[in-house]
Amino acid sequence: MVATTPSASTMPGCILIATDGSDDCAGAIRTGIALAHSRGARLIGLSIALDNPEYNTLVPNLHEVAEARARAALQSFIDEAGASAEATTRRSADPADGVVAAADELSADLIVMAESDKNILTRMMVGDTTAKVIGRTARPVLVVPRSAHIWDKRILLATDGSPHSEAAAELAGHFARQAGLPVSVVSVVTSSHSDARRKEAERAVAAAMEHLTGQGLQAEGQMAEGRPDEAIVKAAESAGADLIVVGSHGRTGLTKILLGSVAERVIGHAACPVLVVKA
Hints:
By secondary structure, this protein is α/β, with parallel strands linked by helices. It folds into two domains: 14-144, 3-Layer(aba) Sandwich (Rossmann fold); 155-277, HUPs (Rossmann fold, 3-Layer(aba) Sandwich). The chain contains ten helices and ten strands. Strands 3-2-1-4-5-10-9-6-7-8 form a ten-stranded mixed beta sheet, sandwiched between helices. The chain is globular, with a radius of gyration of 19 Å.
């Protein structure tokens, strides 16, 4: 049975887009706004004013400078979203903590962030702030590459039967229904997996397929073999999917603080938005 996230029936009624004003955030802003407009959802832009108590004693006007920078970072969001959207800043010594706290305070159903903080040495991993937000919040996080846009072709759901994957299946079905899109389901095994583990993967695909088709959605399923993150991205590309939905952690992943390595690497590889879901 697929688990239901607390807000799955109404998600997303409130969308929070976190931006630092960089060009990397263009895709997150564009996609978050389009999603909010398609749902008639409350739309909030957020920027964090970095607040370091140690430096505040050395630079008396540091609060004002940080706040001014945070407001300036929201300008591109305001220009694109229009007058009906809200824009707010929060002070925090850690940007990730600030985003998570604001999402809780504002009762956001979905956090939208950029695939940022990346360079040639870390191009296959998600940006540090985004990874920390996913690790610290219980809310779904949509990570959007700079050039990406809202999905209009197909959704790919990656599952391994874990509670996080079951929650991901619920939201994948929600987004598919809302957009009228088909869903491809994939579960990945490696050459080292036992027959029992392969059977578990087959059952995970079958359960997700039953859940999706039971809601009247068009769905297809497959097994793939290889390194999980690479196989998931390849399956999305082969299916023509422009949204990937994954659980934040797999069957053996750490569940309390860190973002699971498979989800993190999927985000690092994928050219399309990736929705990361927790149970």
